[in-house]
Amino acid sequence: MSVRDRLGSVFKTREEFDLTSGGIARPLFYLSLPIVVTNLLQTAYNLTDTFWLGQYSTNALAAISFAFPMVFLLIALGMGLSVAGSVLVAQHTGADEQRQADYAASQTVVFSVVAALLIGSGGYLVVGDFLALLGASPAVLPLATSYMRVISLGLVFMFGFWIFVALMRGYGDTVTPMLVMFGSVAVNIVLDPFLIFGWGPFPRLGVAGAAYATIFARMLAMVVGLSILFHGSHGLQIRLGQMAPDLSYLRKMLRIGVPASVEVTGRALSVNLLLIIVGLFPTTVVAGYGIGVRVFSVIFLPAIAVARGVETMTGQNIGSDERDRVAATNGFAARAMFLILGAAGIVVWLSARPVVAVFTTNPAVIDVGATFLRYVAPTFGFIGVIRAYTGGFRGAGKTLTAAVISVLMLGVIRLPVAWIASRPFGAEGIWLSFAVSNVTGAVIAFLWFRRGTWREADLTDERQHVDSAQSAVND
Question: Are 79 and 261 in contact (CB under 8 A)?
Fold first, then answer.
């Protein structure tokens, strides 16, 4: 069997599985596995930066510990539009409404580009003050600022690629974005050390070099992704004639997207506000916290991927009026993620020090990072439960519910516990807040889903406006 045949047996295309009938485990697996790989490749961006900058200096490592949460925050502010586009495409696809799905994709692209330009410009202007507010030290602040200014100017390229990923996922194609991401990551990995250390003909840019490498790689990925969507060779197609801004459609997208942005922004703000508390401690604690967060980004990849798969399956099954299948999908995903991430937590707890040592040789940073992981690892399974159910709420269009769960978990539980517990217990009080909020959040998500309010959702009942708008477009 050739390599191509082996890959084909693992990564199934949209035409090879049905999301709205038959079993649940197989289609969810085939839908989610490429998302795991895509997210793993995305994490490779961050881990590559963390590795090379860790070799560059401890201050550089601390700088990206401050910068990464702000990157997350900027992306989160506009992420709601991609969620809205993905959910609309999924529900129209499930209802067998290809024209409406294409229109939703076209409108999502144009409004997301505008949002990226506005957010990136605003981020460039305030990045220095924002990082100072987070508590970056005088030695770290200029490094983190230089990184974030480059990222802010190139934010449209990062948005552009993730919009492509979200729209194709809503349609049920997760393999194509995975392949595009692979090429993008390869470019970033090659460029990183050359631009950071000034190898060969390249200038020595330090922290800013990592940002330039990321933006260049994302620009290439965006160009490839949008070319695929314009061509329509993978089912979903965007057209220039459908991209004239439709403000009434924007209002519909905002009803879905704003709560989704609140959810993701709440997560980003939580990480940033936690940095204010972490920043009260020595730089070694900040660096250890940054490494711990990067490790989480790898461990939680299956949960994030399955949540996205549940979001798509929920959306398509709502569109096809298969609500009992939605309930079965969410329950299966929650149980599977609890077991898988619970096992991963045991492994991380046992190997915490060697894992942290991959990113730094500083013994003090290794101690902090290992302690952080040992506090949080036993609750990894509960993160899987939260992700599964909030993915189901988003797919049903109940993005406000997912946002409320996120705010309760992070803003009402994690932050206050971190602030209060850090007084008597030091940094370990912050690590304790992660464990407490993870368990409580899972209980809240489970009980809320059992209420069944998501069964009332259907975004495909507003067809007349899209049909009239499409009638003016020459396909």
Answer: yes
Q: pLDDT at position 464, please?
A: 44
CB neighbours of 188 closer than 8 A, spacing ≥ 6? 44, 45, 48, 213, 214, 216, 217
Q: Is the pLDDT of residue 4 over 70?
A: no
What is the rounded average pLDDT for all residues in the chain?
86
What are the helix (H) ranges across 320-396? 323-350, 352-357, 363-376, 380-395
Kindly tell me the burial class for residue 197, based on how many C-beta atoms sit within 10 Å of its own C-beta (0-12, 13-18, 19 or more). middle
Residue 447's SS3 state is helix
Question: Taking a C-beta distance cutoff of 8 angstroms, is the pair 196, 155 a contact?
Answer: no
| Per-residue tokens: 231 | 């061509």
Rounded Cα distance, 243 and 249, in Å: 11
- Rounded distance, CA 85 to CA 352, Å? 39
Coil, strand or helix: which one is 173? coil
Q: How far is residue 236's CA from residue 98's CA, in Å, rounded to a whole number?
A: 8
The token duo for 262 is: 């609140």
Exposed e or buried b per residue across 383-394, where buried means at least 16 C-beta atoms within 10 angstroms of its C-beta? bbbbbbbbbbbb
Side-chain half-sphere CA neighbours of 187 within 13 A: 16
CA 6 to CA 250: how far, in whole Å? Answer: 43
Distance CA 207, CA 40 (A): 22
Determine the Cα–Cα distance for residues 169 and 90; give it in Å rounded to an integer. 8
Query: What one-character DSSP code corresponds to residue 176?
Result: H
pLDDT, tens only, 30-40: 888 898 888 77
Q: How many residues are given for the chain?
A: 475
Q: What is the DSSP letter of 473?
A: S
pTM score:
0.80
Q: Which residue in 385, 406, 472 sits closest to 271, CA to CA?
A: 406
Please tell me the distance from the alpha carbon of residue 189 to that of residue 185, in angstroms, as a whole number: 6
Compute the average pLDDT of residues 158-177.
91
Q: Are 432 and 425 in contact (CB under 8 A)?
A: yes
Locate tokens 């997912």: which residue?
A: 402
Is residue 337 predicted with pLDDT exceeding 70?
yes
Residue 458, judged by CB atoms within 10 A of its CB (0-12, 13-18, 19+), counts as middle
Q: CA 89, CA 1: separation in Å to the nearest integer?
A: 36
CA distance 206 to 57: 9
Q: What is the rounded distance in angstroms from the CA atom of residue 183 to the CA atom of residue 37?
A: 13
Q: Which amino acid is at 204?
A: R
Residues 412, 263, 385: CA angle, nearest 5 degrees: 80
